[in-house]
């Protein structure tokens, strides 16, 4: 396989070149903004390591997606998809640990389970003409919302709104990504840059929600117990 081969997947790109997708490239700054905001939360977060890990993963998505849309080559496309997958799998493992106290050795099973779920969902929807690996994360967000909405622990229930909102925004985002080639005739830049902007909002929201939950789940300090 030629990893330096040219890739033309988006409405905005009409020829090879470093600046062939200006909107798609610059809009990736939204991921950088999300990464910086989450990194800054490490100063006061209950779990600074979690904040930094999420920020680094967001930063890697920024770098890979920027490289892909600037260079339009196969290795950058693989890096773009790869780092998004890393974030999704990390969060799939984090969710049961953080919200339901599942042990680490069991929580890691969420990663292969999610990969299998993605393969199944992609195959099913591909059979009706809509194959996308992003449908599984979309369904996952709404599944998280349902799990929290009906959780026995009432302190978890308010978080369902965050994941429902993230799912709603991601629904719009995925629709815009799908519509990119359909609008080329009337809007040459396409809609993929909006996918970046909205996805950055989704990733920031789920990252911020994880940090809020970590703060809530933090054991009270001895000083607080004595107060």
UniProtKB/TrEMBL annotation:
The chain crosses the membrane at residues 25-42, 54-77, 83-100, 107-128, 134-151, 163-180, 192-211. Coiled coil: none annotated. Keywords: Membrane, Transmembrane, Transmembrane helix. This is Ceramidase. It comes from Amycolatopsis cihanbeyliensis.
